[in-house]
Structure prediction request, 79 residues.
Amino acid sequence: MPILRVTYERESDVLYLILNGEVPRKVDSSRICEEVGDPVLTILDMDEHGQLTGIEVRNASLRLPERLLIEAEQAPPPK
Prediction:
């Protein structure tokens, strides 16, 4: 079963969802999900095979349930 790991950096208000968190995978490319108002709020990270490895959510406190932010690991997202 896939593992989902969630980290949250309160200072920058960025939540990061790591897909298959137990398997370290290199990010080969990132794609911005365009949204009305601010085109850089959600970023999809892909590995060298084009598979989704993570999702970065900026302005997370305005866009996600508070419980998710509280229960997330309090750590900066992977680079």
Remarks:
- Strands lie at 4-9, 14-19, 29-33, 42-46, 52-58, 73-74.
- Helices lie at 60-63, 66-71.
